[in-house]
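Technical appendix A lists one of the benchmark inputs used to test multi-chain prediction within the project. The record comprises two sequence entries:
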Amino acid sequence: MSRILFTAAGCARCSIVKKFMRGSGIAFEEHDVGGDGKERFGQFYRANRSAIFRGRDGIEFPVLAEDAAIRQGVAVIIGHLHAGTRLDGFIGRSGLSKGWVGGLHVSGGDPAAKDALVAVLGFLKKNGLKLQLDTDGRRASVLKTLLEQGLGDRVIMDLKGPQALYSALVGEAIDAGEVLRTMQLVTRFPEYRFETTVAPVRRPGGDPVAVSYLTPAEIEEAARWLKEATGSHKQPYLLRPFDPQACSEDGFKSVERLPANALFRYRSAARKHQVLTESENAPW
Amino acid sequence: MTYPSVYPTGATLYDPERCWNGYTVFQAKEVGALLIDMNGGEVQLWKMLHGMPNRILPGGFIIGSTGERSTAFGSQDGIDLVQADWDGNVVWRFNRYEYIEDPGEEPQWMARQHHDYQREGNPAGYYAPGLDPLTDRGNTLILSHKNIRVPRICDKPLLDDTIIEVSWEGDVIWEWVCSDHFDELGFREDAKNLLFRNPNWLQSGGGMGDWMHINSMSVLGPNRWFDAGDARFHPDNIIWCARETNITAIIDKPTGKIVWRLGPNYDETPELQQLGWIIGQHHSHMIPRGLPGAGNILIFDNGGWAGYGSPNPGSPTGFRNAMRDYSRVLEVDPVSLKIVWQYTPVEAGLPFPVDANRFYSPFISSAQRLPNGNTLITEGSGGRIIEVTAGHDIVWEYISPYWGRMLKINMIYRSYRVPYEWVPQVAKPRQRRIEPIDVTRFRVPGASPAGPQREVAVEGVLPYRPDAALCVRTDHDKDIFR
């Protein structure tokens, strides 16, 4: 198998990947895109433009080309090199810089691969990177392990909504006790916050199934649940607007946006139980 | 500003035939919300009800605040905004804007209200025919504070101004945050540079920059400009002014964007140059429909010291680099920017500029247009309220007798005149003319009577000249404004 690693001069994440590969005995060919690999990367980029992610700060390095497969970013590459596809659900695109690694989805992966996840995150942490985890309440046991191992500098919990609608919001049967345990675990990390996207939900029981946005009363209920679970009415809690056009689920793309100022009523409702609730401005 | 040590307080002038008679409400320093009649009779005191400002609503209701946050942690943060009835019962309260945990204080919700608010139904916060504020329902716009950090404005913590709309039930349903619109404020590079280094630094709360200091906020209400198709003046749009930056602006309610602005610079067009540099102004608002001058902008242009910009001899760093030692009340056409009416030291009959500082309040103050065309002016720092006619005659004057014990000043932040009908609990008071005292003859007990005891003639003396020169020029000198 051919492995080409495109690196950038001064890129600490590139050094970490190289260190992992060398330590694991994985052979690779390196091209420094700022040096003699510039032309080679230019050709590679032109040929694979659509497959290469460009973030706000430009292309995320390192980039690993394994035959036809392209992987980007320190966590994704090391996760893949360590465990193949087994960590795909746990590790995604980071998008963070300045020493932070994100895209670490505690709820998204296979719990059976937990040990591999711990090994990869442990390597990243040991090499000086700070880890931002996210969770929607599922896989509380994975989160607990990461907490115990010190493998999370910040955790963001996407609290989907009130308990009664949680399964409908996630799209699968949810153990409310597990969500509750997650809320409790989240508060034990060094840095954390809770977020809820004021999203449309398929209302259970109707025929046809009715779709409507979470209501202020339901957000209030979510905030109350958060208070009861954590024993605090002062959790950092952010409400976010839902953009149907950016939604990956086709069924919601035709839903109308909430008016730009709509989140204030939700914020007022949530503040009855979570006094520090803030809302994110809608970009529209 | 040149006060003798002894002078009368209470009502000092009153011409009932030329006044727009009614009650006047104001915050009596360290006493409470005071309602007075035209003769200065104290009709009712809502004892210790704070108010920035106090306002009377139809039915004898009053709006104010139950207290202020410690200045160790905040600056001018009203704990809440309440509506109380004639008997002092609180019938509406808002405080759920921010949950505050100040060290050593009980954690509590606070409105952080300061300087202004407006109840639905009435745009500018004072009487206008057919535009009564709601008293048992409706939304309230509130000018509030928020602590922020915005490194591109300043590397220090900032005290920001926000405007929130609150439902009768107490839900915040709209919010405007001033710093979000920094790029729309028209600052030049020198102002931005200085603002970054000194954002009007306060020691409160560990230090913060009160960078804008918005001190008034009201709704435009229905107006002729919008009726003629000028969308900048949509009736829902909001006008505010900011003391530290010399800015008056109108924001578009749906987007929050600034759609009309006066300041911070007054040298950029001939119209602005003609208007003159407005400094530290207060109570900029659009005169409501139904009142003389409706649609024009009424401004109490304090003078004093304000603004960010280039250094000059009076401002070595450029902080508060605009200065003037007298005030002006300006009524400005918002489209042509021409002054339609004004009350300045000149109209007050004070030799200019040598005695101009006798009409001067370097902070607070307000102006209210009355239905008969008079204007109620609060010259706040000296605790003086006057009602002047369109022709600039003073037909009513009142000096607050309430000096604070902690802050020894009889200041009045703002006052409002309301119709007698808005206070149905008491009978319309008797209105008694107060003739002006001839101060040249008035003597206090113990003083000698006026006039020399003996006069003698000196041979050869000439009459005093009408064009006699002073050490500085005055408006009697024809070339002074050349």
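DSSP finds ten helices and 14 strands in chain A. Chain A has a mean pLDDT of 93. Comparable benchmark entries are summarised in Table A2.
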